[in-house]
Design goal:
147 residues, alpha+beta, Sufe protein. Chain: A, 18% strand, globular, NIF_FeS_clus_asmbl_NifU_N, SUF system NifU family Fe-S cluster assembly protein, iron-sulfur cluster binding
C-alpha cells in the first residue's frame, strides 16, 4: 500500500467512524476552533487530572481532513501530560511547515498523524489539518495559565 493510499484510507476511516466525536460533560476545558476560510468548526474537550489528559473528544462540523486530523490528534493525546501534549502539537505543526530536522525521532511520536505530512503540499488544506492542533495549543495555554 502506498503512502497516498494509507493517507486516503486513514482520512476515510477517521471521518467515517469518528470514535472521538462526542462531548465530555465534565471536561476540564472546552475550546472552540474555527477556520473561517472553509467553515470548519470544532470544539475540543479535554479532561485533565493531575496534569494528565485522561480523556479527550471533539464536537463540531468540518471537512474530512479537519475531522480526521482532530480524531487522530485525540488518539495521540489521551494519557499524555499537558507538557507532552504541547510538545507533540509543536512537532506536528513544525512537520506541516516542513521545519523538522530529525525526522526519525520527531515524527514517530505522531502516530497516524504522520501521514498528514503531505498536506503541506496542498496549501488550501493546511488550515483544515492544523485547526485541531492550534485549538489544542490554545487549550493547553489556558490550562497552564490557570495553575
Amino acid at each position: 500500500m502506498s503512502i497516498n493510499q494509507i493517507y486516503t484510507e486513514l482520512i476515510r476511516e477517521h471521518n467515517k467512524n469518528p470514535i472521538n466525536k462526542k462531548e465530555i460533560s465534565d471536561a476540564t476545558i472546552s475550546e472552540k476552533g474555527h477556520n473561517p476560510s472553509c467553515g470548519d468548526e470544532i470544539t475540543l474537550h479535554l479532561k485533565v487530572d493531575n496534569d494528565i489528559i485522561v480523556d479527550a473528544s471533539f464536537s463540531g462540523v468540518g471537512c474530512a481532513i479537519s475531522q480526521a486530523s482532530t480524531s487522530m490528534m485525540i488518539d495521540i493525546m489521551k494519557g499524555k501530560t499537558v507538557n507532552e501534549a504541547e510538545k507533540i502539537a509543536n512537532i506536528f505543526l513544525r512537520m506541516i511547515r516542513k521545519e523538522i530536522d530529525d525526522e526519525e525521532e520527531d515524527l514517530s511520536i505522531l502516530g497516524d498523524a504522520v501521514f498528514l505530512e503531505n498536506i503541506s503540499n496542498m496549501p488550501a488544506r493546511v488550515k483544515c489539518s492544523v485547526l485541531p492542533w492550534h485549538t489544542l495549543k490554545i487549550s493547553l495555554e489556558k490550562l497552564n495559565n490557570s495553575k
